């Protein structure tokens, strides 16, 4: 839903030269895209943590792995993200906006000093969140590999090794999707925010802007790869697909 909303507003932003269209996109479209991106990042981190706990405690169900706890974590995540997004939208809409624009009506054109400080704080917080999840994913994958190697050395013919190998492949899929979609964006985005005011060469600024937009495209690609992640990690999801396929063949 958020991706569709962002896509519609983003197309309108580039297709129109209207200042109001640009303001609407910067007020609602851009925050919605951030909401979609960082909810995906956090939930991918939750998936990795859940898979790791299943490997460490294969015969136990941790308190955080229960359906009730999972539901609470999901609700809390959405509530926190929505509060941040709506607070930013409220401040953005109520603040005085600049009447001029530059760099293709970039959203920075509408920032006053208050919005600019809030925006920088959110960018730093977002980058910190991304970095924490990225390090966690790599750490979980490495610990998974170590667990598999240890099991193969001590009990090479144990049937549980096949399950560990499958878990390693699943974690690899998660790490690869995460790195392809989100690492390029964050490697460009934070430097872009701080370096852009220092760029007086229009060509350099335009190149940086195009590079940032290409990384946004990769980040949006995550919405297309989410079904792959669900297919790899969820037996219930695969069972539902097989059931639908069976019904269609009847």
Automatic annotation (TrEMBL):
It holds the Pfam family 7tm_1. Residues 1-230 form the G-protein coupled receptors family 1 profile domain. GO terms for molecular function: G protein-coupled purinergic nucleotide receptor activity. Keywords: Cell membrane, G-protein coupled receptor, Membrane, Receptor, Signal, Transducer, Transmembrane, Transmembrane helix. Gene3D superfamilies: Rhodopsin 7-helix transmembrane proteins (1.20.1070.10). Residues 1-17 form the signal peptide. It comes from the Eukaryota. GO terms for cellular component: plasma membrane. It is found in: Cell membrane. It is a multi-pass membrane protein. InterPro entries: GPCR_Rhodpsn, GPCR_Rhodpsn_7TM. The chain crosses the membrane at residues 33-52, 72-95, 118-143, 173-194, 214-233. The keyword Transmembrane applies. Belongs to the G-protein coupled receptor 1 family. This is G-protein coupled receptors family 1 profile domain-containing protein. It comes from Cirrhinus molitorella. The lineage of its organism: Eukaryota, Metazoa, Chordata, Craniata, Vertebrata.
């Amino acid at each position: 839903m958020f991706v569709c909303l962002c896509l519609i507003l983003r197309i309108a932003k580039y297709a129109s030269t209207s200042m109001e269209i640009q303001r609407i996109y910067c007020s609602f479209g851009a925050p919605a895209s951030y909401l979609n991106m960082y909810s995906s990042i956090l939930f991918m981190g939750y998936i990795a943590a859940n898979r790791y706990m299943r490997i460490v405690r294969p015969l136990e169900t941790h308190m955080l792995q229960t359906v009730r706890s999972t539901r609470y974590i999901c609700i809390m995540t959405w509530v926190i993200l929505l509060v941040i997004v709506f607070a930013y939208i409220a401040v953005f809409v109520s603040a005085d906006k600049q009447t001029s624009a530059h760099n293709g009506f970039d959203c920075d054109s509408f920032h006053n000093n208050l919005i600019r400080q809030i925006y920088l704080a959110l960018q730093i917080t977002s980058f910190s969140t991304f970095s924490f999840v990225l390090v966690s994913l790599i750490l979980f994958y490495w610990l998974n590999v170590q667990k598999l190697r240890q099991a193969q050395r001590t009990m090479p013919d144990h049937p549980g090794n096949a399950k560990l190998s499958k878990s390693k492949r699943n974690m690899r899929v998660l790490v690869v999707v995460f790195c392809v979609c989100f690492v390029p964006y964050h490697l460009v985005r934070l430097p872009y925010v701080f370096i852009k005011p220092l760029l007086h060469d229009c060509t350099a600024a335009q190149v940086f802007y195009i590079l940032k937009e290409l990384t946004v495209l990769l980040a949006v690609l995550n919405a297309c790869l989410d079904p792959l992640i669900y297919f790899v990690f969820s037996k219930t999801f695969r069972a539902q697909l097989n059931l639908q396929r069976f019904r269609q063949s009847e």
